[in-house]
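Before the break, one more example. Copy the sequence into your notebook; we will annotate it together after we see the structure.
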Amino acid sequence: MKQSKLIRLVILLCIVFVVLVVFILYNTWPLLYGEKIILDTTAYDPFDPIRGQYMQIRYEINTVQKEGFSDGDKVCLLLEKDDEGISRPKEVSKNEFRDGTFICGKVISTYGTTIRIQYDIERFYFEKGASVPSQNITVEVSVSSSGKARLIQLLQNGEPINIDYRALSWRS
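Here is what the structure looks like once it is written out:
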């Protein structure tokens, strides 16, 4: 009887472990094996007492012109690098592209032929008291072969940004 319970416990722990590993791999796959691209941004620096300090990032690719999309639709953008190495939208589709680098997101709103897209790379969190530059920011992103993206780092004038932290007091 005790051996049967032990076997069930071991099986349950193995299942939990496998689910955990699959979840971690699913979320880190773009970082491990994705293609690195640079995206142009406009950013602002809000603070939320629940979420902490973060930079809300808006990308050039968040808004595109295309008909036939509704809120909640999957959307994929084929990207093309310009002379500065920044990836810009070339083509828009509801399906993944067979060739080339593309990023996929979800339509969050439509207005006429303008669609707004979310890619889950729109926030960059940092510690309270951080002084983060917000001018001339681009973002290095890793994109998997399925179009899933993960933010790697913020760049200013093509170089990784240096985040300065001010000393915090109990009143901060």
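The chain has a mean pLDDT of 84. Residues 2-33 form the longest helix (32 residues). Try to locate both features in your own notes.
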